[in-house]
Specification:
The protein is an all-alpha fold. The chain has three domains: 217 residues, MFS general substrate transporter like domains (Growth Hormone, Chain: A, Up-down Bundle), CATH 1.20.1250.20; 32 residues; 247 residues, MFS general substrate transporter like domains (Growth Hormone, Chain: A). It has 16 helices and two strands. The two termini are 21 Å apart. The structure holds glutamine.
């Protein structure tokens, strides 16, 4: 992070007592998440929807569709890594966000074209655009504040609100249009939402001043070399993508998702080891890195459950849940409202509780908070085990099961996600902060792929295959939570926030 870029941090009263640039980022992220979650809620339903009927889907099997969902969710967050590199070295963060937003909008509009061929091209564009936008916008949030600025954490909390306001809008609009009118209307609505985001970003980008404007300083010759390599890689990537889209080669989604999961784990592990042993970090930085590695593992496990809201839990809502409210059958995606609505309700309460405990020096340290997040995730799936039990007796079940599940997951999210983002911003070695953000999102990528793989396993045999898979997940959440609690006592460096 470049200190001379922190020109906005002096502006005390801009947006809710924060630098005015936060407003621009807030609205951009809100529209981006509206489009992301709105479209994602339709994805598995569209892929597994019957080929005939008023709103024909693609008729794919659960195993295949869930694997594609996993690859998509994984790629979305993994692409944040090259996206961060491009912004750091070539584009600057501001431009990366702009290009990303435009590409995402194009992706959703492509999906809106009602032919099957548009499907993978649209998904690819959304993935590439999100890679440019998601991590870089989060990095700019951090850059709005100087290192000493106490407002950083609450800045991230406000930013987190925009994510959830956006996803509420997405579920509301896209699920209604997609499920009740036609899938492609829902995809188109996501594109229109992102277009609003693009327009407002262009108009209010000046509020960011020069925060995140320029890439890292380097000699012209070196930059020219990096640009050349980037062009070559882009060319190669486009060749691989277009030949796939043209059907020159095919792949088995399930096998690909499994290998992608191993790949992400190895890449993340190697990167942590590289930073620890070879990056010339000070002892203090190394201790912080160990802490971040623990948070990474917990976060990956957490997202593997959380991201099933649009995979296995969405199918449970469709096939085994009574969705009627006063005689009206609500869109399946509307149940996912529960998460963002609960975030908006509970985020201030959680922030208040942490602040209250902090004053008494009782604030749990980061690993303990993350362990709590996993315990809540485990509890949420225990609720689902009961729901499955009830459904096996007589289906459909009431929607309160899923709502309680999402409530518990949201509480877990609030002990883990905004705090994790701020921790990666604060405790990463300064020279590597952009890449460390990439790593934070790689945890989401691993979680996303796992969500698809586990969701596929859970639904392969209808209701009966769900319980063993959820039971397995509950066990691994609890084991990791326990390990974190034990380690938090062992590692004396465990931080408090
Ligand atoms: N809900 C948060 C967001 O959309 C976090 C998601 C994630 O990192 N997997 O940004």
């Amino acid at each position: 992070m470049n200190n001379e870029q922190n020109t906005n941090s002096e502006t005390t009263h801009g947006f809710l007592g924060h630098p005015i640039g936060l407003k621009t980022l807030f609205l951009t992220e809100m529209w981006e998440r509206m489009s992301y979650y709105g479209m994602r809620a339709l994805l598995v339903l569209y892929m597994t929807g019957a080929l005939t009927g008023f709103n024909p889907g693609l008729g794919w099997s659960q195993l295949e569709a869930q694997a594609i969902y996993g690859i998509y969710s994984g790629m979305i967050y993994f692409m944040v890594v090259p996206g961060g590199w491009l912004a750091d070295n070539i584009l600057g963060h501001q431009k990366a966000v702009l290009y990303g937003a435009i590409i995402i909008a194009l992706g959703h509009f492509t999906l809106a074209i009602p032919v099957q061929q548009s499907f993978f091209l649209g998904l690819t564009l959304v993935v590439l655009g999100t890679g440019l936008l998601k991590g870089n916008i989060s990095t700019i949030v951090g850059q709005l504040y100087s290192d000493e600025d106490e407002r950083r954490e609450s800045g991230y909390t406000i930013f987190y609100m925009s994510i959830n306001i956006g996803s509420t809008l997405g579920f509301l609009i896209c699920s209604y249009l997609g499920e009740k009118i036609g899938w492609h209307w829902g995809f188109g609505a996501a594109g229109i939402g992102m277009t609003f985001g693009v327009i407002q970003y262009i108009y209010s980008k000046n509020l960011l001043g020069n925060v995140g404007l320029r890439p890292n300083d380097m000699e012209d010759g070196r930059r020219a070399k990096l640009v050349l390599w980037t062009k070559l890689s882009l060319f190669l990537m486009l060749a691989v993508i277009s030949s796939g889209l043209l059907g020159i080669y095919t792949f088995d989604p399930r096998g690909f998702a499994e290998n992608f999961y191993y790949f992400l784990t190895v890449v993340a592990g190697t990167y942590f080891l590289y930073l620890y042993f070879l990056a010339g970090l000070t002892d203090g930085e190394k201790k912080n890195l160990v802490l971040l590695a623990l948070l990474f593992i917990a976060a990956a496990a957490f997202w593997s459950g959380f991201d099933q809201s649009a995979s296995s839990l969405s199918i449970f809502a469709r096939d085994y849940t009574d969705l009627s409210v006063s005689g009206y059958i609500i869109p399946i995606g509307w149940l996912q409202f529960a998460n963002p609505v609960f975030v908006v309700i509970f985020a201030p309460i959680f922030a208040g509780v942490w602040a209250h405990l902090g004053k008494r020096n009782l604030n749990p340290n980061l690993p303990v908070k993350f362990a709590l997040g996993l315990i809540l995730m485990a509890l949420s799936f225990i609720v689902m085990l009961f729901a499955v039990g009830v459904a096996l007796e007589s289906s459909p079940v009431g929607m309160e099961w899923l709502i309680i599940t999402y409530l518990l997951q949201t509480w877990g999210e609030l002990t883990l996600s905004p705090i994790g983002l701020a921790a990666f911003s604060r405790y990463s070695p300064k020279r590597y902060v952009g890449q460390m953000f990439g790593l934070w999102f790689t945890a989401s990528a691993i979680g996303g792929v796992l969500a698809g793989l586990l969701g596929g396993d859970a639904l392969e045999g209808g209701l009966t295959s769900i319980s063993p898979v959820f039971g397995f997940m509950i066990k691994y959440y609890l084991i990791i939570a326990l390990a974190l609690i034990v380690l938090s006592f062992v590692i004396k460096t465990a931080k408090k926030t």
